[in-house]
Amino acid sequence: MNSRGGSGPHPSKLAGSKLREWRQRRGMSVSAVARAANVSKSTVSQLERHNGNPSLDTLWALASALNIPLGFLFDSDGVEESFHVVRHDERAALVFEQPNYEARLMAGWQMNGQIEIYLMTMTDGARRDSEPHGPGVIEHFLAMEGEIEVLAGHDSIRLEAGDMLTFSADRPHHYQAVGGSARGVSVQQYPAARPASAPMQGASAAPAATSSGAAGSGLRARLQAGEVVLGTMLFEFNTYGLPRILAEAGADFVVIDLEHTGWGVPEVLPLLATARAEPVAPIVRVQGSARHQVSTVLDAGAAGVMVPMVGDAEEAARVVEAARFGGPEGGRGFGLIYPDQIAVGVPTATAAADAETMVILFIETAEGLENVEAIAATPGVDVLWVGEYDLSISMGIPGAIDDPRLREAEERVVAACEAAGITAGILCGSVAAAQSRRERGFRMIAVGTDINLYARALGDELAEARSNGAGPA
Fold this sequence. Notes:
By secondary structure, this protein is an alpha/beta fold. It has helices at residues 11-26, 30-37, 41-48, 56-66, 219-224, 242-249, 265-275, 291-299, 313-323, 339-342, 346-356, 366-370, 372-376, 388-394, 404-420, 431-439, 450-467, and strands at 84-88, 91-96, 107-108, 115-122, 127-130, 138-152, 155-160, 164-168, 173-189, 229-234, 253-257, 281-285, 304-307, 358-363, 383-386, 423-428, 444-449.
């Protein structure tokens, strides 16, 4: 039941149109709504432009700020007014039902990586088959109307309205309406990841791993919802246990560099494999924009690809084509070969990969800067990442990081990203620099590299130890 069936507009598209309509009726600006809801201005703008995939909490805050019923945001032609909020373990999800679809899901709203909730409607005798969801997954099924027979393995249990059944979802199971139409809610509960440490002020804590099993799942949706995510970059330490350390530190993502290190896919495969068990999205910076460079690291398990020195929209489109399966812009070859990647079937697996895969393009040349608006507007691009040093060299001011011309270039990149409804990213050498860039609109920030962080931390510890008489001054 991980696949989402049905047709019709996505809930965020309905919400965006309704939000703009109600805001204009109230005479409120985007900034005023953002302040009242305590969300970023870009979150409201992206939602109104039908970009982004906001969380229920964000929509609830917006509806409260405008003093309107949350259901109003989703009341639209083609969607039956059977809007529900289902709560389980203090989490919530929105589910929608489309008329005339037997046992089909129009849309499920995944609130976080641990819980997925779906509404199911069946006519008399209709049967819904569900594949195993993986080890450790628990399913709670609540019968809402009519009678539903649940077949899990060799067990057959008949539920009436109000009955709830909990069982292990690591084996095939089925639902069947008995004696008339029936309706119920399926709650799939996935194993929780280890909690992360507290993030930098203003940033969100790392999410748990999602049902797809993909490392760092949910990072793309978080950025689309207007969140700030923090991580680091690796140039030296490609050891098996590093993703676990990064998760404990609270990192949302890690960029693994192939451009400058001499590493190839064999050297980073262990990192990509162990990252699957942690809520840290592994992004691989490749050497160029060729198809085999992009798709190979994604097939190996990267949650996203970072491509250097992109110069124009045509090159951006080629990267997207190599990174995505579906849509008019997609053309990635099918390389999902592991059982956990394809257990849900090829259509669902490729759709899930497209929904989670990050496409990050470097703006670090004068040519890329000149074409930044067109690059940002390329369908399928998620992040434009400023490469400060290469960009300064290309602009004729090598290493002048504080030069006003470079600051203006960064502001142009941020403006292009905001106009296109995507994210601006950057590497910062200190917490102060990261906070400064965040205030200027960057929402994906790498705080230091493994080399610099280790050298700085070790230097500080040794200096303190020596000052206490533990060694020669």
